[in-house]
Amino acid sequence: MNSQPSPQRPGLFGRPILTVTLVVAVLAGAGLGGVALADRGPERAPATWHAAPTSARASATTPAAGDVQDTAAEEPDTITFSATGDIIMGSAPNKLPANNGEGFFDSVKPGLKSDLVMGNLEQPLTGDTGTSKCGTPPRANCFAFRSPPSYAGHLKDAGFELLNTANNHSKDFGTQGYRNTVKALEGAGLKHTGAEGQITVVEVKGVKVAVVGFSPYAGANNLNDIPAAKAVIQEATGQADVVVVQVHMGAEGSDKGHVKPGNELFFGENRGDPIKFSHAVVDAGADVVVGHGPHVLRGMQFYKGKLIAYSLGNFAGGGRTLSRGGVLGYGGILRVTVTRDGTFKSGKFLSTAMNSAGRPTRDSANERGRARVRELSAADFGDTAAEIDDNGLISAPA
Question: pTM score, two decimals?
Fold first, then answer.
């Protein structure tokens, strides 16, 4: 990508013990059957969805029991991170939220609240640049998503502070569309990561956190170039106390929940070897790996004591841009506590789901995402699987 951030200057510090809480939020849609993206099937969406009345939105912001951690009760010097799976707020010009997107994230806002909130922005924030990846008129089964630059304000209002752009939709409207996205994010005071060679370092309560985004697409850190990926992570460890990897990896669809060794292909694209990549970046010094891309939840594993969440699914699909059927409808909010040197301490998983219009909502009544992640983790990772109890508490295997 032609637009590159200024290099971050390394910090000079060691890794004394300090507890760090990581919160990861995930969402997929709700229902039965279907595929990951609306452009993979015949589903047609109405031009707009209608926001709930103000009173309903206000009640939606009331957190369910256990959604917001009592930071005062945590160990001293803790910080809280949050991150989500895929975010699409709408698709201009005909599939944008009513009321200009006001209150889009209200239901999940309490669960996202933390010291540093991260998400995977699965669309550009731009006007029509005249350069769509789908051509003019659009090719069949190809969708280029975009929302107005002003929608960066909705991300800000929800509490997001850092967005990953290493994915297959960030350049839907070309390099100029990507530049416009960066301008919109920075204009709203939001950080971003995902460009090739980019290490985004933020300081939270005196703790330096490096976030690095990967995908198999041009202009991003390449998840299929393992030596280069390890080199970037090794560089990041010299700049921060904690290193978090955001990675868009794996084939997508309702039948892609399981993680197996080997490269995953989708429509002719090599979407990487999720296990090989994740283990490699942990070997290089990553403390947490946050995956997304398959549009379904996947299991979680501990490798050398580090948590790997292989896919956090869909967080938002405004304008019905993401399908919500069956397992595509399960998601959740993941909380993980680690020390400053990356030692895992504890975690928690809260389920979420998209409503009929693709807006994210808290699934506190059913906790379907929690059950799904527990099932997939045990099936795919055996004695290295993350364990999740009936309260959503996550622990490393004994």
Answer: 0.85
